[in-house]
Amino acid sequence: MSVIGVDVGGTKIAAGRMAPDLTVHGAVVIPTPTGAMAIVDAIAGVVADLARESPDEVRGVGVGLPATIDAVTGLVAHSVQTGMTAFDAATPLRERMGVAVFLDNDATLAVLAEHRLGGARGTDDVVLLTLGTGVGGGVIIGGRVFRGGRGHGSELGHISVDGDGPPCQGGCPNRGCIEAMCSGTALTRQFRAFAGAEPGSALGRLHAAGRLDSRSGLALAREGDPDAIGILTVAGEWLGVAVTSLANTFDPDVILIGGGVSAAGELLLGPARAIYQARALPPTRRAPLRVAALGAEAGMVGAALMAHEGVES
């Protein structure tokens, strides 16, 4: 008996089949369509393809969404990237696929994967930040996933680190959130602002060519461009402020940074770690701060694990 995990992102949907030994097979990636029902259709289609190729029966499907999921109603409460608001995604998926379907927030599933199979194995208390287009968060407390009273907890990306900072994105009414300071979107904004002021810089030349975003800016930083490194350093320091508060709040065994921006590695984590070690309370600064282990597959693996644990319970 196997299960299928599906990770829905703003630009792509990744899916794979998890065997009983928890290994993942046949992973596929397709573009994310526009519109809530179009996304449901795409999920059902990729699951059907994987199920046909499975050597054994598929018992359940886990789906991770960049969304808050209401644990009481089962509805997708809100998701900017997918356009789902008070949307019932589970029912049409169950009807289309004929198996048990489990939904959760994508970052929550990523921390589940890291705890069970990745960089937090053997620990009891974990904090994960996923730095991508936005910033997601996941928390493990006493070996169990923390979701809050209605499943809306662990929205760590919307903790404010600068009360007078820039407005947050995606309909968040807060200012200076981690997402507004450290996400890929925030880095793109910061790279382009510098490029506009310094058109003769490497960032400025990229911008003039229409090729400047968070990925190209990160690539410049890894090549040693001092301006790109400087912007990453500031973002890393804001990340360190956030990590300090998270360490003082949860006293975790490990703090993990995932998502596409984590590709910056020590260019981002070095400044963050310096702030964290200087500012966190001495008992809570024990937790190592490091890049998550499972990379881009964490959400998909976590979705499959959720389905595996759901059908086994």
Structure description:
- The protein has 313 residues and is an alpha/beta fold.
- The protein has 2 domains: 127 residues, ATPase, nucleotide binding domain (Nucleotidyltransferase, domain 5, 2-Layer Sandwich); 170 residues, 2-Layer Sandwich (Nucleotidyltransferase, domain 5), CATH 3.30.420.
- A 5-stranded mixed beta sheet has the order 3-2-1-4-8. The protein has a 5-stranded mixed beta sheet with strand order 11-10-9-12-13, with helices on both faces.
Provide keyphrases for this structure:
single chain; 313 residues; alpha/beta; Nucleotidyltransferase, domain 5; 5-stranded mixed sheet; 10 helices; 13 strands; globular
Brief synopsis:
With 313 residues, the chain is an alpha/beta fold.
